[in-house]
Amino acid sequence: MTLESTVLAADGRVMYETKDTIDSSDFDAARRSYQCSLRIPLGDYAPGRYVLKVQARSSTGKWPTATRRIGFTVAPITRQRP
């Protein structure tokens, strides 16, 4: 299985992209799931709205592609006065 993760800016620009190959032994067939985590460096992102898109594709073509989109907002950093 191939797992692609992409962060898109509101204007459609690709801000981050990664592609991983998942061994079938790591896939929980009984639950039809795979647990993963990502560290996405947000330090250079301007405040605004973004979308994380995660897409899983079967290597054999036996299963349909699964896609999930999750919106999130990067807020401006506010400094507290002493």
Number of helices: 0
Q: Approximately how much helix is present in the residues?
A: under 10%
Q: Structural class per helix/strand content?
A: mainly beta
Mean pLDDT: 86
Strand order of the largest sheet: 2-1-3-4
| Overall 3D shape | elongated
Low-confidence stretches: none
**How widely separated are the two ends?**
52 Å
Strand content: 35-45%
Give the strand tally: 4
Main sheet summary: 4 strands, antiparallel
The radius of gyration is 16 Å
Report the oligomer.
Answer: single chain
SSE topology string: EEEE
Number of domains: 1
Structural features, described:
This protein is mainly β. The protein has one domain. The protein contains no helices and four strands. Strands 2-1-3-4 form a four-stranded antiparallel sheet, with no helix packed on it. A hairpin with a 4-residue loop joins β1 and β2. The radius of gyration is 16 Å and the shape is elongated. The protein starts with a strand and ends in an 8-residue tail after the last strand.
Give the key terms.
82 residues, mainly beta, four-stranded antiparallel sheet, 43% strand, elongated
